[in-house]
Amino acid sequence: MGSTLHANALVLQFRRDLRHATKALPRQQRRALLDDIDAHLDEALPPDATDSDVRAVLDSLGDAEAIAAAATPAGALADRRIAPEVWALVMLTIGSLLPVLGWAIGLALLWRSRRWSTRDKLLGTLVWPGGMQPLWIMLAIPSGSTDCVNSVCTDSGFVPPPAVGVAILVILVAAPAAVLVHLARGLRHGA
Amino acid sequence: MGRAALPATELRRGVVEYCVLSVLATGEQYGYELVRRLADFDGIVTSEGTVYPLLARLNESGLVTSNWRQVEGARPRKYYAIAPEGRRALDDFRGDWARFRDLVDHVLALSDKGQ
What we know:
The complex is a heterodimer. Chain A is mostly helical. Chain A is built from ten helices and two strands; from the N terminus they run αααααααααββα.
């Protein structure tokens, strides 16, 4: 078992061609495809296969470029399934402009998807709860002001130190943005 | 590619997925077994190797499930099974396909009568 897969020159060349042709695929997808094709060749070729047998099997399999090309475009069914994930990302970020509901919808779509791991879903949920909603709230709250009448100045409202205010603002923008990028990458890599 | 081959290629696109689902609806199968079964229907797939990326997409879409299994005395095999969502997609397609096929038949009949 497997001797033809690892010893026949034609098979070895085909496997090299396939590895080369699939270089642009995401790592996980590429590994799965190479394993599938190896398993196919292993099943199809007896240990004592002749070059003629090998050629027949490789002809049926198709050339490496065609197999790689078939792995690149998403088919009709896969396309149909991408939309919910894209909507999840939109609702978790921009959608949070719709108070509570927008983020909740994003969360439901996130957890419904099979394309993210539980770890990714937890990240999407916990960083940052409410998505960008805390940012919108912070921007909407009137900041403290200083009124001066006849050289007597009084402060009203909460005025955080500038450095703290900037740090909070950066966290409220950067944390959801980083999670968004992470989730989008996971989607692209078929996580 | 010849002119005559074009329509078949175009027709195949978007339909092969459902043929795979239909074969899997008859029972769980490992990759090579499934590919050979499809190959029995000449013209359904252009080349056997392109079935694997298709299976990966169906798997990713949650329409089929897969798992590697070691059957005693044999090499590890990746088994595919249709998921409930795959069955629903197949049922939807069955209705769509019947309607579309009837429509095309009717349209083609127009020119057939004229000849």
